[in-house]
Amino acid sequence: MFINWVLSAPAEHGGIIVQHIRLMKRKVYHCDGRPTRSAEAPYYNYWEAWSIAPGAVSPPVAIYGKARYSDVWAIMGRSPKGTRGSLRIAGTARFYPATALPVGFNVHPRRPAGGLPATRRNPHLRGAIGLPVLRIIDISWNCCCQKNGPTHASQKTEIQ
User: Fold this and answer.
1) Residues of the chain scoring pLDDT < 70
2) Other residues' Cβ atoms within 10 Å of the Cβ of residue 19
3) Is 115 exposed, middle or buried (0-12, 13-18, 19+ CB in 10 A)?
4) Contact criterion met (CB below 8 Å) for 141 and 77
5) pLDDT tens digits for 75-84?
6) What beta strand segments (E) does 6-148 contain?
């Protein structure tokens, strides 16, 4: 699921967009109905950030095929054969006029934020401009048959 962060007006002095990501629901079961052990939960409560250059309205975009995006939500390798279940992940993003990332934001390529600076500690940022943007993704799958069942995903984005 791709998104492009775009401010309603240029950021005169630059700033950052910070998105708080939370795993809201995780129900994963073995085909016999036993719940699986949850290893993902600790990784889905974090803050990730994008820098906005002075005078810009968006962070640099990435290109994947014909898609140009600032952020992508992808749950890769999380629905293994022999399981069925569902996930709900929510993200709330805000723009903060600033010149640098707060202390504690670091890049951890093997964590869910990928190449973005992120932290697991609440940065307690103040001074956001504009309304928060809420994103929710619901994913469900059933890989309990001979052929893996379909994976369904839906995304909702709203300005609060």
Assistant:
1) 1, 38-43, 64, 67-69, 73-80, 99, 145-160
2) 23
3) exposed
4) no
5) 554 556 778 8
6) 15-30, 45-52, 62-64, 67-69, 71-72, 83-96, 106-107, 117-119, 129-142
Q: pTM of this prediction?
A: 0.80
**Would you state the structure tokens that stand for residue 25, as one six-digit string?**
């629901």
Smallest Cα–Cα separation from 19: which of 143, 125, 98? 125
| Other residues' Cβ atoms within 10 Å of the Cβ of residue 21 | 20
Phi, psi values for residue 86, rounded to 5°:
-150, 155
pLDDT in tens, 1-20: 677 788 999 999 999 999 99
State which H helix or E strand residue 151 sits in: strand 151-159
Spatial neighbors of 65 by CB under 8 A, at least 6 apart, are none
CA dist 119 and 48 (Å) reads: 7
User: What is the strand order of the sheet 15-30 is part of?
Assistant: 106-107, 117-119, 45-52, 15-30, 83-96, 129-142, 151-159
Residues in the chain: 160
Structure tokens at 48: 């990730």
Main-chain phi, psi angles of 139, to 5 degrees = -130, 135
